[in-house]
Amino acid sequence: MDWLHVALWTSLIGFVAVLPVPGNTALAQDTAKLGNFKPPREGGVRRWEVAGSGAQVFREPAKGADLVTTLDAGAVLQNRGCSESAGVVWCEVRSLRGDVRGNIVASQLRPVKGPDGIVATGLDDSRRRADRRNFDADDVIPCAQEQGQALGKCEAAVARGVGGDATVVVTFQNGFARKLYFLHGEFVKASATMSGVGTDMEWRFDKAIHHVRVDDQRFELPDRFVFGD
Do residues 153 and 174 touch, judged by C-beta distance below 8 A? Predict the structure, then answer.
């Protein structure tokens, strides 16, 4: 083959290499929009926000799969990692309290800022720090250990994360302690004990106080204590 043919083949190969790949336009747009699809354990964003109304959550990463639910814009979901399937990027998600789980098309999601204005990435370390008793603050809060009992006083200590995450350890006067977990500024569950698994709960936020019931126990936690200034 003479030098002219070599030059022609080299030019053709270079031209083909820069052609767009059919069917990958949506994938490229998703990648440009969301950037990092890794799960939090690999440094990815901790939570997503639904970008538009009518976002569908499927049991499997395919539009022909069973529909789990449809979500409104602004719904906050935990990131469980994303992957490409048939030219579409899907993200595995679950709600803050874990009652909704499934897969959603990545283009319907965007990273969400927590109540502190920070887009949290990576794993929350507040639970590990609480286990090590590496706390940011302590206080005395109103509490009740038994159903129908009047509110008394409990010692409480908090390990704070970013993005509205925190772990609070409350100790009753008899020495019994329970961990209370907050995600994205909301109480989501407590540690499992002989009193219960920690998901039989009620939570409301009123006048800067988190009113929490878990099983038969009740707690009143100032927002400033849980999350700081």
Answer: no
State whether the Cα torsion 94-98-99-101 is positive or negative. positive
Same domain, 170 and 134: yes
- Which structural domain range is residue 181 located in? 126-227
Kindly state whether residue 1 falls inside one of the protein's structural domains: no
Q: Using only the alpha carbons of the chain, give its radius of gyration.
A: 24
Tokens of 190: 């407590």
Tell which residue, 147, 140, 221, has the closest CA to residue 187.
Answer: 221
Judgement on whether residues 155 and 92 belong to the same structural domain of the protein: no
Contact residues for 131 (Cβ-Cβ < 8 A; gap 6+): none
How many Cβ atoms from other residues are within 10 Å of residue 212's Cβ?
22
Burial class (CB in 10 A: 0-12, 13-18, 19+), 132: exposed
For the stretch 177-224, pLDDT in tens is 999 999 999 999 999 988 778 889 999 999 999 999 999 999 999 999
Cβ–Cβ < 8 Å for 74, 49: yes
Domain boundary among 49, 77, 111: 111
Residues 126/167, Cβ–Cβ less than 8 Å = yes
pTM: 0.83
Token pair 């030059």 is found at 7
